[in-house]
Request: fold
Amino acid sequence: MEYILALTHVDDTGYALTRASLEVVAAALALANQLEAPLTVGIIGANAASAANVLASSGARLLVVSGEPFAQARYATDAAACEALCRTARSTIVLAPASARLARVAAGVAHRLNGFIDTHIGSIAAGDTIQVTRWFYRQRIEAVLTRDTRPWFLLLDAGTHVAFSGHSGPAQVEEVVVSLPALRTTVAGLREPRQDQQTIRPDAKLLLVAGAGWTKKQPDGQIHATEAGSLILGFLHATGASLGSSKSLVDQGGDGSSVLPFLTHLNQIGQTGATPRHAKGLSTCCHGEEPHVVGWRFIADRRAISLDPNCGWTRGKADVVYVADAFHVIAKLNLLLEAKKL
Amino acid sequence: MPTPLHIVVCAGIVPDPLQTLEPIAGPAGPGLKNEMVLPAVLDPWAACALYEAAALVAKYPGSKLWLVSLGPKAKLQAVMMTVAQKVSFEFVPIDGPIGGFPDAQATAAALVEAISTIQGLDNAKLLLFGGWESATRGAGVTLQLVGERLGITDQFQGVDQIEFRADGSFEVLERVEGGKHQVSTCAGTPAVLGWATGNLAEPRNNPQIGMANMRTVMPALQKAKSISIPADGLHYSSVTLPKQQRTTKVVKNLTPEEIAHELVAWIGAE
Reply:
């Protein structure tokens, strides 16, 4: 008999579950139904009980860890909270979102419980055994695996499951008491770019990928980095798209070359960057393997603008390749998008 | 100024990212075709951790740096020919399997055993560094498991910056969702830091550093303990390359304006 626990946490507001947490609840409900196993949902946050109300109709046992120490993400407190929730639920299968908060602690908690962990899970199937799918070698090889050992922790990537939605109402919750170790870390808060400079938008439908071609010499023999920057920002402003970048373009800042000032390593996609999930992706001035193979793995609908009709990395990876100068296309595109808004 | 730091960097070796990878089934589980002859490099994010560690050691006199790496001896030696020219370190090799398919828990246990044999390592001064995820398994759990086994409960993942203060405490910037950093202050060592990219460029090769390092790297490799990684109940049902090959439509004869119109329709379409 399996005992399933969905480990979740509240969002920045402190009163609601994150979307990734709701996805985990939905995945856990489906798994519990397939296995005819009892489901418990554990919630961590300063006001976890109020966040539980959204799960009132889930039929799951609801455990919460509340209080000021759990208002922010920190290894010592979150690990202690997760450990207490797992012990209370006597869980054999633990599902959790692969969020920064729980990814930081889940392996440590698994170790405390003599358990095992697999992360970046894309799908779960229950039959004679529970089989999960995940990627290896930075999204180049896909594997289906299972484990005999329990407890088994599974961290689900965001965007891989439909989020739970049910009727909100007063939920019956059980408060779990956590004994905390001496705390040596204090969390000051979040540091983020100014609102108008934030170019990473995980919830955007569209990802614009900028490659190193934007800061290379153009047909007039000159580099037009400033123009490139304003075109890219104009596009992001008009569409609400998220911005990804190739490694070579981000690295140019460190080499003292012309740079796009709003780009950081956080924008980087590919082998040493992110593999974001968006419905559509438009790559511009990219000629490498990284954006098209690794960074685009989870982009559903892909188009590219490239001067090279024979670019081997777009062939077989993009749905449509426009052989054109991205400077000209994006300039026209921005005009059309702005006109459409008026 | 903090007391001298003892920094241990855990860094695996991975196939050069430009290599084509093909999975095969072996007697000990899945692996990569021609894995032993594929050119290898130090794991990219772990390499960032190594460079950040070297910068801290240079900044705070009396500090020490160890590089702990698990892999087949021959591969470790080949990778060290380059890595050893970047920064000074003491090498702690473990002769074991390469690749992303062995289990992380058993890997962590092997790393902890190797760390516990390091002469002169003071756990009170310890900063355990590594990449927040590897380019092989990419699970982001090994460093955490090593930290837990060492009893370290101040852990940070996706680190881009560490700044020490005069009292020995330090501020850490960790990546969180949405292109933001979480800012935390830790009272001091010991701590675990899984690095993302950091802020340092890759150091240039310095043959003098390389020669100095290789004096200790080669004897360490000769003495490296051989281990195997047990499966611990992990079974692979299938290991395959993704089959998605798209039929790419190449559009050559449209003007920028025509392309822009087409893209507007595409962006707006549900």
